[in-house]
Amino acid sequence: MASEIFSVQQATSSKPIESTSSGSLMDHGITTSATLYVLWISTLDIQERCPVQANVVLEQSLSSVQSLQTSLSDQALTSLSAQSPLAPASPQVLSTMLNSPETSTSFSSQATVSQPSTQVMTIEDQASASPFTEQPVILLEDQEEPPESPQHPPELPLDETDLQTILAKLYSKVDMTFSPTSNQINVCRDRILECSLHAFRRRRFDPAAKLDVIFVDEEDNAEGAVDEGGPTREYLRLLMRAIHQSNVFEGHENDRHLALDTSALESKMYNCIGKMISVCLVHGGIGPHFFSQRLYDQICGTLSQPTLVEEVVNHSFRQQLIKIQDTNTIVEANEAIMQAADTLSIVGALRRVTTLEERDSLVQSAADFFVNGRVCTSLQQFMEGLKTLNVLDEIQKNPEVFHELFVCEEKPLLARDLYTLFQVCFSVQGSNKRRIENQTICYWRDWLVDIEGTIIVIL
After folding, report:
1. pLDDT band at 379 (very low <50, low <70, confident <90, very high)
2. Is 298 in contact with 406 (CB distance < 8 Å)?
3. Helix crossing, 376-386 with 269-284: angle to 10°?
4. CA atoms of 290 and 407, how far apart (whole Å)
5. What is the mean pLDDT of the chain?
6. How far is 151 from 154, CA to CA, in rounded Å?
7. 414 DSSP assignment
8. Does 85 score more than 50 pLDDT?
9. Does residue 68 register a pLDDT over 80?
């Protein structure tokens, strides 16, 4: 019942079907549910291809669909009375998916014949709908402007701010069809980090190629040379745990900063740790989940909040700064400064103060240097490692998207979070089993609502 001239083409076929053709879709070989590509023809092409029909396209379109039999959802029919019958439109993709008899839409020879009408079928964009909600499964993505050339339809834009999309894009650049010999990682479970450092420091190690992980027991017997993905996933989880406990990080278990280790800095261990995190993220989708907010801000290059004395990891130095900060007079402040003279001289903050403002400035500058300044070189080396597989660039482009993978967050587990994890397979409607199943689902959902908010999930 369309008021424009268009062509329909099956995804697996190279032959388009013109809208002015006679017969039903079954007459043209489309007998099962399939993905159809609909290309609307512009006014210029109509004049070139069928000039006689250009002025009577509406009448011919209405008369040619008498035998087209469809069962479409009523929600998909809207009036386009304000649209010109010959207005050009952009190419669109019409895809049908079968989920259930109640929610699916398909072309069938058993459907009732639709009567001619001046209404045109339009489908609202369902891209944001949840995959677990019962919605019509016809999806249509519109483009605001028509392409310059109707013969070459543009690709549909992707949501580049979606974490899954970004990780899929990074993973697509990894060659999973071949694993070079230099990518073989021989590890013992009690020496994960040491064995990994040896493998990642190989001159020919290629992060953009498939990993070949072999676990070796105490008797040096390999568990299996054929890696179908299981050993790799286990290895990446163990590696991230070993990185979390390594000496290049310090602080609270779920709020860790970069530590200053001159030996690790000299051996470029920070660079190697950054490379390992990138590989874990792209190859296995495993994020650290233990970065402090300040460390993540430093990596992203975003402005951080002023450094707090509580962020100083060294206990004795933190207590010295707190003692200076809590003084009430200039004399007490200078006495506290002299007691911490050895440490303050190392960070370049040793000086006498004459006002309380100078006291606060001394404490602030000492805390800034300890938290940020002294690890500046280590941070640069660490960020060089994160450039592996273009991870750092994506993090800096989308800091909010990657935040959940790097920074530990505590949030309550909601009932709907568990609802969406399961899809109930009910028995036939009206049967005795279906009544029992309905009651069971009610009890289960009531229980989830009752315990909502009492469970904390640490990401």
Report:
1. very high
2. no
3. 30
4. 5
5. 75
6. 10
7. P
8. no
9. no
Q: In whole angstroms, how far apart are CA 53 and each of 57, 65, 66, 413?
A: 6, 16, 18, 61
Compute CA distances 421 → 131, 132, 415, 457, whole Å: 11, 9, 10, 15
Confidence of residue 359 (pLDDT cuts 50, 70, 90): very high
Q: Which residues of 292-315 are buried (b: 16+ CB within 10 A; e: fewer)?
A: bebbbbbbbeeeeeebebebbeee
Paired tokens of 125 = 């964009």
User: Contact at 8 Å (CB) between 257 and 251?
Assistant: yes
Residue 359, phi then psi, degrees to nearest 5: -60, -50
The answer to whether the CB of 145 falls within 8 A of the CB of 90 is: yes
- The answer to whether residues 111 and 127 touch, using CB atoms and an 8 Å cutoff, is no
Task: Enumerate the H helices of 5-113 as residue ranges.
Answer: 43-49, 57-64
- Specify the higher pLDDT residue, 121 or 231: 231
Single-letter amino acid, residue 114: S
User: What residues does 72 pair with on adjacent strands?
Assistant: none
Give Dmax over CA atoms of the chain in angstroms: 100
In residues, how long is the chain? 459
* Three-state DSSP state, 142: coil
Strand partners, 120: 78
438-443 average pLDDT score: 92
Least confident segment among 227-231, 318-322, 327-331, 426-430: 227-231
CA dihedral for 229, 235, 240, 243, sign (positive or negative)? negative
The whole-number average pLDDT for the span 371-393 is 95
Amino acid at 80: L
pTM for the complete prediction? 0.57
